[in-house]
From TrEMBL:
Keyword Signal part of the UniProt annotation: yes
GO molecular function: N-acetylmuramoyl-L-alanine amidase activity
Stretches that traverse the bilayer: none
Keywords associated with the record: Signal
Domain of life where this protein originates: Bacteria
GO biological process: peptidoglycan catabolic process
SUPFAM superfamilies the record matches: N-acetylmuramoyl-L-alanine amidase-like (SSF55846)
Signal sequence coordinates: 1-23
Protein name: Cell wall hydrolase
Provenance organism: Bacillus cereus VD133
């Protein structure tokens, strides 16, 4: 029974990641590196998200900042109190 539950959860997670179901908006930064996970393209090992942690700071500020500085680090999602913005493809590694 536990194995069946694990399989169902894995399928749900893969579906959610493949459809950007977590994001309110998708604003993928162009020219990001396409480095696959250790076990290949789309073999998810985790998702990197950055939260603004304050109501006054919008997630779009993170997206704008990382669109200029992505060579140092970038995340898959920027999150504030009201929305989540996907800024990198979850099928590839983000380093943030």
């Amino acid at each position: 029974m536990t194995r069946l539950l694990n399989i169902c959860i894995t399928i749900c997670i893969l579906f959610l990641f493949s459809t950007s179901a977590f994001a309110d908006r998708t604003l993928i930064i162009p020219d990001l590196p396409k480095q696959p996970y250790r076990y290949g393209f789309g073999a998810y090992e985790g998702v990197v998200a950055h939260s603004t942690a304050t109501p006054e700071a919008p997630a779009i500020n993170i997206q704008k900042y990382e669109s200029r500085t992505w060579r140092n680090a970038f995340v898959h999602y920027a999150v504030d109190w009201d929305e989540a913005i996907q800024i990198a493809d979850t099928k590839y590694i983000a380093y943030g």
